[in-house]
Amino acid sequence: MKDLLLALPRLAWMIASLLADRAVPRRAKLALAAVAVYLASPVDLIPDFIPIVGYLDDVLVAAIVLDGLLNYLDRPLLLRCWPGSATSLDSAAAVARRLARWVPARLKARVFGGKRA
């Protein structure tokens, strides 16, 4: 989880880059915009003022989004927008994948529309 917390600034950068990229499908942009608003919003499922636990919902949402992006968008596009190395993306992706397992597959599929064909 520490790796994902350290990757949050990179994830924010990647979300901004993907929102500006014309190659990103509209459905993915809508999901990214919604996540950006949720993460920036002071209103959360678990209030951030609660020590440690308050950030769990943000970390879980970030994990679901990163896992969904890796399943839905092409890797070269993600690497172009990721402000780090391919290794750092793979490291963050491994953590995100483990955390995203806690969320039902049907719910994750609704965010990005399932796996890309």
State the main characteristics.
mainly alpha, 117 residues
Task: Give the uncertain stretches in residue-range form.
Answer: none
**Count of individual beta strands:** 0
Overall pLDDT, averaged?
81
Number of helices: 6
User: What separation lies between the terminal Cα atoms?
Assistant: 30 Å
- % residues in beta strands: under 5%
SS-based class? mainly alpha
Molecular shape: globular
Order of helices and strands: HHHHHH
Helix coverage percent of residues? 55-70%
Main sheet, how many strands, which sense, barrel?
none
User: Radius of gyration, Cα only, in angstroms?
Assistant: 13 Å
Helix/strand layout:
Blueprint: H1 2-20, H2 26-40, H3 56-72, H4 75-81, H5 86-100, H6 105-112
Helix pairs in contact: 1-2, 1-3, 2-3, 3-5, 3-6
Task: Provide a concise account of the structure shown.
With 117 residues, the chain is mostly helical. It has helices at 2-20, 26-40, 56-72, 75-81, 86-100, 105-112.
Explain what you see.
The model has no long low-confidence stretch (mean pLDDT 81). This protein is mostly helical and 117 residues long. Helix 1 (2-20) packs across helix 3 (56-72) and helix 3 (56-72) crosses helix 5. The termini are far apart. It is globular, with a radius of gyration of 13 Å. The relative contact order is 0.19. The protein has helices at 2-20, 26-40, 56-72, 75-81, 86-100, 105-112. The chain has one domain. The longest helix is centred in the N-terminal third of the chain and has 19 residues, at 2-20.
